[in-house]
Amino acid sequence: MGSYPPLKSLPAFEASMRHKSFALAADELNVTPGAVGQQIRKLEEWLGVELFTRGVRQITPTADGLAYAARIAPALQQIRDASHHLRDQSNHAVRFVMPPSFAAKWFSKRMSRFLIAHPETSLHVGSSSVLLDFDHDPVDLAVRYFDGKDEGLEAVLLYQGQAAAFCAPTYRERMGLNTPDDLVRATLLNDILHAWWEEWLGTFSGLSGSEIRGIKRVEIDQTSMAIEAAIHEQGVVLANPLLAEEDIAEGKLIHLFPDQVVKVPLGYYLVWPKNRELRAPVTQFRDWLLNEASDLAVS
């Protein structure tokens, strides 16, 4: 028996511990669940202990497994960090991820300005509502819509979240929406990722709780889809004004009640790991993005 454990088994073990699943670990590592299970068995044989208790379609870490994972996790992180640092020394790529609605409604029309100013930089842009893991996902910077609280991240507020009512001009005329109380006749397009209708109506309308609950609603799980539905006269959407500004400028939407805006406890933050030294191209892109966002209301 060699002095080192089977090193190929360690990534499989670490991923299985995080996901509590051989199948999800296999997806991450681009192998089969059987291959992950085989690597775990090799490691268990070398260590002489069980690391997981196998059940029907589930695995549970043993006490030995939890203790072993806690001991080797810092070393694996050091290996990742050292390898990425060496690989990235001559890397001019910047990997950036943000929510789909922020990408479509704010970032996309500004992106070319960075590429023109910095043609030497290769920009890799992605959009996702899934919470990413900087330790395991190939990402340098991200925009996240949350409360800004994460001990492992540097977080700079780009835009404080707000909830305001928007609809197509023709929909307002057809439904006679002149005051918040008139929304009792409308269809509320409820973006379930940013659901603030109860608070907004409770603050600005004179409707009772039962009247508010009785208003017709359509539940939508994507912000951009909810805004598009409002553009196509399907109802009234409650959204961040930031995401509606382009459609307002083009006359597709109107801000129904400009003085009735609720400030919400979430916002768009630019984030990156506290323990990571940013490469020069990443720092350059970060500073450019913060400058682009400097005209946004953050208070």
Structure description:
The protein is an alpha/beta fold and 299 residues long. Helix 1 crosses helix 3 (33-47) and helix 5 packs across helix 11 (241-249). It folds into 2 domains: 9-88, Winged helix-like DNA-binding domain superfamily/Winged helix DNA-binding domain (Arc Repressor Mutant, subunit A), CATH 1.10.10.10; 90-299, D-Maltodextrin-Binding Protein, domain 2. Helix content is 42%, strand content 22%. The protein contains 12 helices and 11 strands. The model has no long low-confidence stretch (mean pLDDT 90). It starts with 8 loop residues before the first helix and ends in a 7-residue tail after the last helix. It has helices at residues 9-19, 22-29, 33-47, 63-88, 100-107, 111-117, 169-175, 197-204, 209-213, 223-231, 241-249, 280-292; strands at 52-55, 58-61, 93-98, 122-127, 141-146, 153-167, 188-191, 217-220, 236-239, 254-255, 262-273.
